[in-house]
Design goal:
7-stranded parallel sheet, 414 residues, Rossmann fold, 45% helix, 15 strands, binds nicotinamide-adenine-dinucleotide, 2 domains, alpha/beta, 8-stranded mixed sheet, 17 helices
Length: 414
């Protein structure tokens, strides 16, 4: 039995899911192959992912492969109730309602684990964490992880000998993080900022904290919209890369002094803290696009604010030291809370990786150790070639001689 807001929303959900499907042709090819061969026949798959129209298409592909699928949300604010209703109508067990409390959220995770999954799928390692703690009675063939923060948690579990089963770091596939994190987060995070505030970005000082795959994407999009972009980054190579891109590179405190808008994408806690709030300008806008709502220290901000009130949807005003600090989406993923997350076209590749990872775990789990794995490079090359073709690009084919030349050491200056 599913836990959803309203089954009557399924009609709207169907429209949304079908709209996303138009841009998810790589996944559609895999779904067709899955329908013919049923590689996951009879397996239980438990997923904890953002309940969006794109995720719905992944769940339907897994069903086409013959799996029984249960889904809960990986973030209470990203759930689309219409999508949840449509999936529930299509024989997916869904436990997700937009905006539920933390207690309800964890109840939903446990409901998914109650289905005794053979394979789990996470966006932030929450199911795996439960499987290694409160729900250690359940044993799985393996799991898959969607995001950088989840992979960091899993690698720490592996290092501390806590992991009991293999996990595929889907995030680490090139066709995931080089596209989803960069182009997906870049576009949708700026979309979230604009939808929440209606600000004209051109001419503003936009500070991007963290210059990883996501930060690069956010900086590029803000720059493309006419912002003066400043990057904050502790890794010297990445900081230098940002500088040579033409961005200003500053310490977090110096960047906070000049910012009109700050987007944090570090995967780290308290990237924005009291020392930053103290020096910010009146009316500054703060947004987080990192996985957890720990990047902005809201507790400290609230504690020292004379007043906090909601200005409009997704915007809260903190009266701090005589000035206003505006926080978007309660410090949660701004692109999913205030906008509609990554565009379907980029999730097409991420979820092609997820679908193929489920099959890979099923086929290989007996030979795998309790470690974090990445999918073989051929999977990346195949997904990229398919997507390239679908988007009208042409791949260069090397001649036999060129391949031999690249493989040899004998050739040099002639
Ligand atoms: N919003 C989304 O939809 C979405 C999508 C993909 C990933 N994510 C999340 O975004 C976060 C970043 O992902 P990524 O793939 O870019 O990771 P990444 O590891 O490639 O980059 C993070 C960068 O932040 C830097 N950093 C760490 N602490 C910092 C601090 N205090 N101040 C400034 N910089 C700091 C690191 O040096 C690194 O360069 C993760 O939490 C990830 O899970 C979100």
């Amino acid at each position: 039995m599913s836990t959803i807001k309203d089954k009557n929303l399924a009609v709207v959900g169907q429209q949304e899911v079908e709209w996303a499907a138009r841009q998810m042709k790589v996944l559609e090819e895999i779904k067709t192959e899955f329908s013919n061969n049923k590689p996951l026949n009879g397996l239980n798959i438990g997923a904890c992912m953002h309940v969006t129209k794109e995720t719905a298409n992944l769940m339907l592909a897994l069903k086409a492969a013959g799996a029984n699928v249960a889904l809960c949300a990986s973030n209470p604010l990203s759930t689309k109730d219409s999508v949840a209703a449509y999936l529930a109508e299509n024989d997916v067990e869904v436990h997700a309602v937009h905006g539920v409390s933390n207690d309800e959220f964890f109840k939903h995770l446990n409901s998914v684990l109650d289905t005794k999954p053979d394979i789990t799928m996470d966006d932030g390692a929450d199911l795996v964490t439960l499987l290694l703690t409160d729900r250690s009675d359940i044993s799985v063939m393996g799991s898959m992880e969607e995001t950088t923060t989840g992979v960091i948690r899993l690698k720490s579990m592996e290092k501390n000998n806590k992991l009991r089963f293999p996990v595929v770091a889907v995030n680490d596939s090139d066709t995931k993080h080089l596209f989803d994190n960069r182009f997906g987060t870049g576009q949708s995070a700026m979309d979230g900022v604009v939808r929440a505030t209606d600000l004209l970005i051109a001419g503003l000082d936009v500070v991007v904290i963290g210059f990883g795959d996501c930060g690069k994407g956010v900086a590029e999009r803000a720059y493309g919209m006419g912002a003066k972009v400043t990057v904050v980054e502790p890794n010297s190579v990445r900081a230098l890369e940002a500088l040579m891109h033409g961005y200003e590179v500053k310490s977090s405190v110096n960047a906070a002094k000049i910012a009109d808008v700050i987007v944090s994408v570090t995967g780290n806690m308290h990237a924005l803290d009291k020392k930053h709030f103290d020096v910010m300008k009146d009316g500054v806008v703060l947004a987080n696009a990192g996985h957890f709502d720990v990047e902005i220290n809201l507790e400290a901000l609230k504690q020292d604010s004379a007043e906090v009130h909601r200005v409009r949807d997704h915007v809260e005003s903190y009266l701090y030291d005589g000035k206003e600090i505006l926080v978007l989406a309660e410090g949660r993923l701004v692109n999913l809370a205030a906008a509609t997350g990554h565009p379907a076209s980029v999730m097409d590749m991420s979820f092609a990786n997820q679908a193929l990872a489920a099959e890979w775990i099923k086929d290989n789990h007996e030979d795998l150790e309790p470690k974090v794995y990445t999918l073989p490079n051929e999977v990346d090359l195949k997904i990229a070639a398919t997507k390239l073709g679908l988007m009208g690009g042409e791949l260069e084919i090397l001649t036999k001689e060129q391949i031999e030349y690249l493989d040899s050491w004998e050739h040099g200056t002639s």
